[in-house]
Each structure stands twice: as C-alpha cells, then as structure tokens.
Design a protein that fits this description.
11 strands, three-stranded mixed sheet, single chain
Length: 180
C-alpha cells in the first residue's frame, strides 16, 4: 500500500471508529464465507433483532398496528441490513498490484451466501413461537413474566401487550408448585 493510500485509509479508519462500527471483511482473497459469517452474525446476534425460524433468517419488525412481527430477511434487504452492524470491506488489487482493503457494498450473491452459511444458524437465536401477550413461564422453579420482545428462556417472541408492573406470582407459584 502506498503512503498516500495508507494516509487515506488511516483517515477513513478514524472516521469509522467515530461511528462505532467494526470492520467486517467480506469473503475473497483468503477470507472464507464461513469466517465472514461468524464475524458478521457474531455482531448481529447479541442485538436480538435477527433470528432463525424454520431454518430461515427473520428480522423483528414493528407493524403499523404497533405489534412485533417477523419478516424473512431476503438477500436484497440484507445488503443494507448488514451495514448497520459493521463497515464492509473487501480485498482488492491496488496500484502496483498490492492487496488493499476497500470499503464496499455487499453484493447480492454474497448476501445470499452469508444468509445461508452454517454460522448464521449457529449464532442467531432460534424462535420457537410467537405469542401476542406477556406469558408466565417457569424458570428454576419460579414463575416469571415474559414481556414483549424475545424471551431467551423459552425462545418465544412476545409480540404485544404490556408487562404488568405487579404480578401476584407468589400465589400463582404456590398453586403451580402444588400441582407438581
């Protein structure tokens, strides 16, 4: 990389740091689809905004009526979706034939390949079902409320309703424990 390219890249890297987005290098030139998918979905998974449902990546959206819903993430939409979680780069040939990292948009076929990588299924949380109001569930012998959003314990997405401020779980828990 030439001195001027290094300088330009350093300026860009500083700006990317300010934006708080990590660098994600897309597959090619020694970077595998699997490695890129592990890095990218490793960034996305903790946000609990993208899930696996029936072997398909789906994103959590809010409908016009305010309810949460799942929508299949198609490769065409994934291209810009990925940009929310990292600055995308690819190795290219620079002047004098040296490899350089360049900021890029994710190509459609690459988005499709990443969505179908094993790491996608391995890293994204699975959705077991959707319910439209908060539910009581047992965790370590105690009843607790699962409110709107993704519930880690059950794999359910609660799509609506309001989590009650007070739930008389002691009484419900006593009755639940007597049935066991």
């Amino acid at each position: 990389m030439s001195a001027s390219h290094e300088s330009e890249f350093a300026v860009w890297a500083d700006e990317a740091d300010v934006n708080g987005l990590p660098q994600v290098v897309l597959p090619g030139a020694g970077v595998t689809i699997s490695d890129c998918a592990k890095e990218l979905f490793g960034l996305i998974a903790p946000t609990r905004s993208l899930f696996m449902r029936a072997g398909v990546p789906v994103r959590l959206i809010r409908r016009a009526d305010g309810m949460l819903a799942l929508e299949v993430l198609l490769p065409v939409a994934a291209r810009s979706y990925f940009e929310q979680f990292g600055r995308l780069f690819a190795w290219r040939t620079g002047r004098n034939g040296e490899p350089v990292l360049k900021p890029v948009s994710c190509p459609l076929d690459m988005a499709d390949a990443l969505l179908h990588a094993d790491a996608t299924n391995d890293l994204l949380p699975s959705v077991r079902g959707l319910v439209n109001c908060p539910v009581l569930r047992e965790i370590h012998g105690e009843l607790q409320v699962a409110g709107p959003g993704y519930d880690e314990e059950t794999g359910l997405i609660v799509t609506g309703g309001v989590t009650p401020a007070i739930v008389p779980v002691d009484c419900a828990n006593d009755q639940f424990m007597r049935r066991k």
